[in-house]
């Protein structure tokens, strides 16, 4: 199973500048979306262990000049 999580950004709007910044930061394998009133990067197609992937994505966002408020992980229940 591939871990999925959101990087919740300080921005409350998805505009062309933010889309460009997210792409330039290297999140071309992720999806930019809105979540609870904030722009968010949904990281969902990276293989690996969750905590390592979160640390890597946070560092990637920082290098790209993106301000991350927090990380959200959706819990799923499998029956």
Q: What brief labels describe this structure?
A:
single chain; 79 residues; four-stranded antiparallel β-sheet
Describe the protein's architecture and organization.
This protein has 79 residues and is α+β, with helices and mostly antiparallel strands. It has one domain (5-73): Alpha-Beta Plaits (2-Layer Sandwich). The chain has two helices and four strands. The protein has helices at residues 16-24, 50-63; strands at 5-9, 31-35, 38-43, 68-72. Strands 2-3-1-4 form a four-stranded antiparallel β-sheet, covered by helices on one side. The chain is globular.
Per DSSP E runs of 2 or more residues, the count of β-strands stands at: 4
Note the beta-strand portion: 25-35%
- Count of domains: 1
Structural class: alpha+beta
Distance between the termini: 15 Å
Q: Indicate the percent of residues in helices.
A: 25-40%
Radius of gyration: 12 Å
Q: Which topology does CATH recognise?
A: Alpha-Beta Plaits
Under CATH at level 1, the class stands as Alpha Beta
Based on the coordinates given, report the CATH architecture.
2-Layer Sandwich
Order of helices and strands: EHEEHE
Q: How confident is the prediction overall: mean pLDDT? A: 91
Strand order of the largest sheet: 2-3-1-4
Sum up the overall morphology in one term: globular
């Amino acid at each position: 199973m591939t871990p999925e999580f959101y990087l919740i950004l300080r921005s409350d709007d998805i505009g062309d500048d933010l889309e460009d910044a997210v792409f330039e930061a290297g999140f071309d394998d992720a999806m930019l979306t809105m979540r609870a009133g904030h722009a968010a990067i949904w990281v969902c197609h990276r293989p690996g262990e969750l905590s390592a992937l979160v640390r890597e994505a946070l560092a990637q966002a920082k290098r790209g000049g993106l301000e991350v408020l927090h990380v959200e992980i959706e819990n799923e229940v499998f029956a």
